[in-house]
Amino acid sequence: MRRAAWILTTVLSLVACAQDPVHQGPYAPGIAKNGPSVDPLLVAHRLMDAHEYELALKTYTRAAATNGMTPDVLAGLGSTNLALGRLGTAEQLLRRAIKDVDATPETWNNLGVVLVEQGNYAEAEQIFRRAYALDNGESDAIRDNLRLALAKTEKSDYTPAEEQDYKVVRRGTSDYLIRKIP
């Protein structure tokens, strides 16, 4: 009796799945080719806002396959690589993105951040100036980044060498001391 009930339940479940237009068979449904699709660029921007950088990178890549390597896609890929700490890749992508006439101030700013992280303060200063001008001075973040780059440029590690005479003095068998000659 139990076996017959089990068989009847299984057959009815299979019939219900076969009649349901969403579920065709016992497997998960496939991609709805007729359904509305969401712009992958929008999804990638939202993933960046949620700090899901690996997923955003994959989604920006899908957007590149769908829309091509537009300046928005390049800027998104560059910003994602910056967030992941891949500075070399981020720099290349962001430089390609700013070649477009309509590059956003945020793209210029992100390139400046990459340059500061790499220690290229003078070039970063120029990039931040361009971003600040494109933004009409409205962004506090760009202004703060420009101030940082200016401070780093002024505080150069290259100071004139001071002429000082030093002498290595041996004390004991293996102890050395460096002394300034008067």
What does this structure look like?
It is a single chain. 25% of the residues are buried. The protein is built from eight helices and two strands. It is elongated. A two-stranded antiparallel sheet has the order 1-2. 61% of the residues lie in helices and 7% in strands. The longest helix is centred in the first third of the chain and has 18 residues, at 2-19. The chain has helices at residues 2-19, 40-49, 53-67, 71-83, 87-98, 105-118, 121-134, 140-154; strands at 166-171, 175-180. With 182 residues, the protein is mainly alpha-helical.
Largest sheet: 2 strands, antiparallel
As residue ranges, the low-confidence spans are: none
Q: Shape from CA axes?
A: elongated
Give the overall average pLDDT.
80
Strand order of the largest sheet: 1-2
Helix content: 55-70%
> Would you list the SSEs in sequence order as H and E?
HHHHHHHHEE
What oligomeric assembly is this protein in?
single chain
Number of helices: 8
**β-strand amount:** 5-15%
- From the helix content, strand content and strand pairing, which structural class follows? mainly alpha
What is the strand and helix layout of this fold?
Blueprint: H1 2-19, H2 40-49, H3 53-67, H4 71-83, H5 87-98, H6 105-118, H7 121-134, H8 140-154, E1 166-171, E2 175-180
Summary, kept brief:
Helix content is 61%, strand content 7%. It is mostly helical and 182 residues long. The longest helix has 18 residues, at 2-19.
